[in-house]
Structure prediction request, 281 residues.
Amino acid sequence: MPTVTNLTQAQVNKIQIDEGVLYVDYGEASERKIGPTRGGGEFNATQTIRDIEFDGRVGKTAGMQVIESQEAVLKVNSLCCSQKEIEFALPGCRVSGTGDAAVIKNAKAGVLSAASGSSVYCKNLTLFAKLMDGKFKKITIFNPLNEAAFAVKAVQKAENELALEVYAHYTISDLNGDLYQIEEVTSAESEAALSALTIGDLVLSPSFSSGELEYTAATTNASDKITAAPTNANATVVIKNGATTVASGSAASWSAGENTVTVTVTNGNNTRTYTVIVTKS
Prediction:
């Protein structure tokens, strides 16, 4: 007979369930969700450990092992074949145009770099895996780059799966930096973001959106009340009109011409800054 061992509620709470959700550049202005996906996301961290050989050694010895190399990778199959997703799958590819009108061509041979001169490596790729207690394991890999072969299949009565195998990378300026980070968080929503931003009755252009960071507005008023609400209640918000700090719900005074309002949202290691140029006539 097998031994029956009761589980604690704490153990049950930490069972990971469901498929999770993945973001490219989570917490950045360029943040976007990957998906829809099939098969969820898979994270692997690998260490290559070498045993130090010495006279008298009879087996593995604590304190006599060296980590020679480390790798971290997130794998996911995306059903989305948007131009943006294909661009992500083909690092270094040449892109002209934007959105659905973008034209994608092969990368040039040589050192991997973006045709635009910007980095082909994103800031991060982040997986949120849900737990039984409603919290999430947040797994982030840094400087990610897809290294899987690119394939598109047109199959009867089936959908194409864009297989992504995204590796974390060190940088030449930090060869012993962070490859990945694992946290437990209460929400999979963007933690360093605003859910609302108003400046009196002024009309923001473009209309406010949590992922949009730059706005303009016009006023003839001497001052207007600025109100900013974070998406996550644990986040802090700092509002400045130029160099002057303004509490949320308080009024900012305008000078003639352009006034720069910045709203910085911070939650843990995540920071996002919104900017509004208010022009007073």
